Amino acid sequence: MSTSSDASGDAATPTPKTPVRRAGPADPTVSGSTDDTDGPSEPDRRERHRLTSLQGLAALSLDAMASVAYGPEAIVLVVAAAGAAGLGFTLPVTLAIAALLAVLVASYRQVIAAFPDGGGSYAVARRHLGRRTSLTAAASLVLDYVLNVAVSVTAGVAALTSAFPSLHDDRMWLCAGVLVLVTAVNLRGIVDSAKAFIVPTAVFVGSILTLIAVGLFRSAPVSTEAAADHASALGEDATTVGALLLLKAFASGCSALTGVEAVANAVPSFRAPAARRAQRTEVALGALLGVMLIGLSVLIGRFHLQPVEGVTVLAQLADASLGHNWGFYVVQFATVVLLALAANTSFGGLPVLMSLLARDNYLPHVFRLKADREVHRHGVLTLAAVAALLLFFSGGDTNTLVPLFAIGVFVGFTICQAGMVVHWCAERSARWRLKAALNGLGALLTGVSTVVVTATKFTEGAWLVVIALPLLVLLFERVHRAYGSIDDRIGLGRVPEAPHRERSLVIVPVSHLSRLTCEAVNAAVSLGDEVRAVTVTHDDAEDREAARELRRDWARWNPGVELVELRSEHRTIGRPVSQYVRRVYQYHPGTRVTVLIPEVEPDRWWQRLLQNQRGAVLAHAVRRDTQAVICRLRFRLPGPERDSSPSAARPPAPLDRTDRPNGSGLPGGSDLPGGAG
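^ thats the sequence. predicted structure below, dont judge the formating
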């Protein structure tokens, strides 16, 4: 049996720190104390649920790794508008993206070192660029992470339905199944998710590197069966390549850089030394991603591949390099799995970011809570719920979501790079001018990419992101103002007046005598100076008879507690009790009132469906209408072998009496309208 009380104040407000007595192995005064030598210490247990560098690469790089499946293709589809001449610019554009990738990796290594608590662009902007800019960065990252989940799931399912067209009509159910799977794995902890995704990541990276290595030794495609009988998507009218086209190709190809920031956002998820492990993971991610992007672009030029309708560029490369055999299907299957699981990057980064926002009072404090496995469970579940809504409204269509995808992350990139320029100028460490110039170049490139992507994709859905960003910022500020108002009203941070004792009254709602009633009265007399039991009687013959029986039983039991009968014309219990509490305050304004609501805690979860939920209804009414403290007493049903406890004795048989004890002091039944006389 346990009690839990709800005051009318804000439970999310930070709890003041008070001294805590720590029990040693032999301290008998503190219940639950254990010897530390019996098992691993608490820090060791926490470290066990954090990431190594390899696990971090598997858990936080899936988004970036999977982008090689659509990054080179995004470049090819744009430059193909200029015809065959445009395809020759695929490699130069990819090299420019790889250079930007190197700048981003170098920058985020410094972000990790300077901000080991995680947060990425949000943490950088918060320190160096001001509150509003930091909230813009946070909003952009939130949008990017949510869209990444939806895009990754739909892209993986789309690849699967392309291989098995009979599943196309069931793609929504497949999307939902993949989302549930990834969410369930992440609820078990980020380490478990990393272990589960190491094999798919290794298979994908190995197959892509094998494809590139084999293709470099071939002078012509081994097979073109995958693209056979498919219409070419090559432009026929354009013959020149303009700067705007190259900028658009660069911006589209930069979708391959999404996910680079995830490691910097989730630094606290790594084992100690967390910053060093995160930096190694960031470098490994950048190296692998750069090699794969450049290698695939070289093969596109070597094999003179053209985009065709219904077949991905990656599928054509696998066909040309490995042949239309088992190797081709391994690459396709690995791509399907990794695309579907790339959503895991968001589950690793967004909950940590939401935790930091909650710490700074920009999101509800519940997002700071961690489960046993170091999981920000509320952040994981919120991300899954919002992603599910996106999947539902998009109908599981990747093309509906992709135009929204890259804008958020590039806004974050630009803000982070600009913030690091300010960081170097303020710190002036060794070679700070070179570092500032590098970050400044990165800010310029990502800023241009942001403008180009927004302009070219605005009518395709990018306007939603343009609207959503300021709305999220306004939401953060509204939450922050709400917390500030609460802090001011409760005097957080100010020394309060000296504690003083006030007279207390505990009100116990009852409807019959039972062991639950006995336990409730026992608890009530331990809590307050005066206890009063109340029962609500409705105006019908059956209820009046039940009330008379209760009065007889109560008189026979004679617990020394007054029973007050509250009459009601309607079948409700919340309003009569809350009205009674308000009248107590009216007659005796200096009284502290506690409403103790006894409830049975069933043995089985399904037995909760059998309860009438009157306790919840009563608690809601009292909380809404009064300032009383609510205490909900949970009474666990004992087994047959424990029925010998003193409280297990049933009340004696009722007497043929209609009188009840008379109370004094606080208003009882004779003092208030509706009371029993």
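The chain has 25 helices and six strands.
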